[in-house]
Amino acid sequence: MTGSSDLRGRSPDLRARAARLPLSPPGILFAALGVLALALPFLSLAANRIVAGEGVSAFASAGVPTVAVAIACIAAGLALGLVRGAPWMRLGGSLLGLAGLVLLLSQGATTLLDGAGDFARVSPAAGFWCLALALMLLMADALSTMGLGPWRRGGLLVLLLAALAAVLWSGLLGDLSIAQEYRGRIAAFRTATWRHVGLAFGSLAAAAAIGFPLGILCHRRPGLRGSVLPVLSFLQTIPSLAMFGLMIPLLGWVGSTVPGARELGIAGIGFAPAFVALVLYSLLPVVANTVAGLAAAPASALEASRGMGMTAMQRLVRVELPLGMPVILAGLRIVLVQNVGLAVIAGLIGGGGYGTFVFQGLNQTATDLILLGALPTVLMALVSAIVMDILVDLARPTPERSR
Amino acid sequence: MRIGLVLRAAMVALLLALVLRPGWFEPVFAPLAPAGGPVIYTRSSLLSLSLSHLWLVAAASSLATLVAVTLAILVTRPAGAAFRPLSRTITNVGQTFPPVAVLALAVPVLGFGAGPTLVALFLYGLLPIFENAMTGLSTLPPHTMEAARGIGLNNRQRLMRVELPLALPVILAGIRLSVVIALGTATIGSTVAARTLGEVIIAGLLTNNTAFVLQGGLIVGLFAVLIYDALVMLEHRLARRSGRAQRG
Amino acid sequence: MIEIDRITKVYDGHAAVDEVSMTVETGTITAIVGTSGSGKTTLLRMINRLVEPSSGEVRINGEPTHAVKPHLLRRRIGYAIQGHGLFPHHSVARNIGAVPQLQGWDKAKIRARVDELLTLFGLEPDAYRDRFPGELSGGQQQRVGVARALASRPDLLLMDEPFGALDPIIRTRAQQDLRDIQRKLGSTIMLVTHDMDEAVSLGDKVAVMDQGRLVQYGPPEEIIARPATGFVADMVGDAERPMRLLSLIPVSDLIEEGAAPGEPVTAGATLREALSACLWTGRDAVPVTRDGAPAGRVTLQAIRARAERQA
């Protein structure tokens, strides 16, 4: 609104020139970032897993033909990203660039390790991360201008995850230090994954089971809403570490005094305190969004539903819930993403999950171990967010005709 | 309202006592400490830890506010319109990054200490402020904007006299969100050797000393609640002044 | 027959509706008119017990409404409101079929009824059945809202400012349609409005409410010709009275033998339209046609006499 009214005040030839320019401004930014990244060290080679590595430029990281092909892919990808108004081409560019990046990473690791000693480690360095960032931003920018429907986004997500799985499965990146860390901990990684999923999704389920009825009750009784919501938002301001810490004595006390609690696995350390802390954090978004969602039904539709003889239950199920579903699901999205992240802290109190690797890595100053915990967490949070966004779109009560 | 005031005063008093005179609470925490172990955290002064914690949060949040608001202004101008979808995506995606992961990922680049914590707090703090500033600046009442142009304010004057003041409550809500997250994340900063109140909690976790955990947790919790509350009150005042309907 | 018997609603010691009694004949339209705060909407909402009366009772065909559970009562009474109140997430067909579905009709019967009503309201079933309310124009939404209220063939249709959200031209059209459909179906309708023109043109009887009390209840001619109180006279508007009156009388009442020059008016038109035609073209009389054939004329003098005598 402000944008268009501001435009009118601008000099016309400036606008005309901007419109004639065939380049995408964000694309220029990504390309500049990419060129800058090529000047930074692409890989780092260390004598062992603890000592700091030495940077290796992208151009020196592998044999000349490989480097040439890989850099050409990356450059071509970034160049395609410059094209204005052709989002599919820009998406293709980002994929091409990422392919080049994987090629250089894979070949570079193998080349550098060759003859560097038994304990030598190769990790991606700043240059790699900047290039990856530029290309992923390009992908995000292209996708956001495409405005894809929920099904197409879902399909694209599956394809991208399949590509990622294929790269990891193929062992192309097997020479990287993080892969070596992984190979040393396959069983532990699997346990941590399940534990992390259990913490994040389990607490989501528990929070939904408590939060939905509470939200519906709050919707019906404004008095209750006035006292429940402030308490829940108070809970959310407590810093996570403090919350996790406070759960330890509390659940320890419950475990040792309430008969049978210990048999259910309730104890001061481990899964239970982390789980309870996550549930407490989740209640606010669930309850607040349930209340907001139920209030989203237009007043005249509610009046009509009462007037035509719907019971309170029929009103809830047929009118209020379907109309509020996107908002309610948006609350669950917040909770899920937040809990995937917070579950990392469980690693500090023996609750397991990816946090175990993060904090072990921090203790041992082993960067790749930190990454082994942090990268899957980020991936899980991202995928959860995208999937939940798709669900929110699908839950929209009046489907868009254009699908 | 009266009860709220008494409650706030009590919380401030409790917080000051916990930080300045931790010795007073020895009898309260004693049952929670392991037999023969220390009850009150004495390895470093709670006051200096609190100050260092608050300083980290204040520095990161001010920097984040400055950068985020500037970026939001740029993106809501016609010249920056091309970056709007991108910036929206970045805020959406960026906020899915767990704060702990951001902190952990900053360590390899910056080493241990206050540095990575500051950077993580700054980066993570940008997003809510930027998001709210964008919302605030792009949802101004069109009549007001038309009137501002009508009385002959130029672009700069409109920004400084109309747009920013009107968007201020919304921006402030973003700052509040960001500060609360920063207070919590700074606690975790202790795991990368930043001097914050998290040190007390972590020391408690490592030595099974619940007294320490409770002590640290209470202080951080009180800080968070009081700062959150103060910012909410400030927002309400500003919202009343700028006439924006604001829900609690 | 709907009997409203000394019904009262008290809010905080103040009577929003004060001992109102009236009887509504089956198959008629009753317009309840009043300013905002007059209690007209509260009165309407007490009939389907969206508001529970403080005292008094309503009987529909002899059966007191408080003998039935409120939601079951409401399923027998149609209800259409301002801004239509359609469910935005349901298709037109699901909206119209809502009450029959609540009453447990089988699918085929609901479908047939929906198509019947769509046709009745001039909406091609195949084109409109699966649309969503957001895809309709304001006038179409309003028609679907009324169709929904009529779907289960209710004993009574309550309408609360049903045309309030429509612009003037569409509103006139919607009023005519409602009149036609009511004639065709023989429905009993009670309608709340703040617009005296609407009340007078739609109602077989008009009830004027003021400060919770029913101040006058009678046929529109009587309301206009003999307002019971100063308030009713204000509502009718002194300057407008002769015109309002003429707009209630068909030309056929005053047809006389003879010829007149110029464009004719139809026998079904109102005297107001005939007067307008006289004044605009400077004639003392206009010819009248019935079913296309000449039927005589109506004179300016006769129109004037009619307006005068009544007033």
Automatic annotation (TrEMBL), chain B:
Membrane topology: Multi-pass membrane protein
Matching PROSITE patterns: ABC_TM1
InterPro entries named in the record: ABC_transp_perm/SBD (IPR051204), MetI-like (IPR000515), MetI-like_sf (IPR035906)
Record SUPFAM superfamilies: MetI-like
Record carries keyword Nucleotidyltransferase: no
Subcellular location(s) per record: Cell membrane
Name used for this protein in its record: ABC transporter permease
Species this protein is from: Mesobaculum littorinae
Lineage of producing organism: Bacteria, Pseudomonadati, Pseudomonadota, Alphaproteobacteria, Rhodobacterales
From TrEMBL, chain C:
Family annotation (SMART domains): AAA
Keywords per UniProt: ATP-binding, Nucleotide-binding, Transport
GO biological process, one term: quaternary ammonium group transport
Key word DNA-binding present: no
PANTHER family, sorted: OSMOPROTECTANT IMPORT ATP-BINDING PROTEIN OSMV (PTHR43117:SF4)
Family stated for the protein in its record: Belongs to the ABC transporter superfamily.
Name of the protein this chain belongs to: ABC transporter ATP-binding protein
Organism this protein belongs to: Mesobaculum littorinae
